Amino acid sequence: VVVVVGVVVVVVVVVVVVVVVVVVVIVVSIVLVGVKVVVIVILLVLPIVVCGQNALRYKVLALVVVVVLIAVVIVAVVVVIIIIVVVVSVVVVVAEVVVFAVVVVAVLEVVVA
C-alpha cells in the first residue's frame, strides 16, 4: 500500500512539474512572438509614415530586419518544441523506471511474505 501511494505521489509530482514547465515555455514563446510581431508591424509602418528621400533605403533595411526576425521566431519555435519533447521523454523514462522499481519491490514483498 505504501509503495502504491509513493508511486502515485511521484507520478503526480512529475506530471505537475512537466505541465508547469510546458505551460511556462509556451506562454514565454507566445509573448516573444507577440513582441516580435509588434516590432515587425512597426518596422513595416514606419517607412510609410517617414517617407521622403530615405523611404526606399529604409524599406530595404526594414525588410532585412523582418526576415531576420521571422528566422528568429522559427528558430525559437523549433527550440521550444525540442525542449518540450526532451522534457516529456525524460519524464516518461523516469516514470517507467519508478514503475519498474515499484513492481520489483511489490513482487519481492510478495515473494518474501
TrEMBL record:
Q: Does the keyword Membrane apply?
A: yes
Enumerate the UniProt keywords alphabetically: Membrane, Transmembrane, Transmembrane helix
- For this UniProt entry, which segments traverse the membrane? 7-31, 37-56, 63-87, 93-112
Which top-level group of life is the source organism from?
Eukaryota
Q: What is this protein called?
A: ABC transmembrane type-1 domain-containing protein
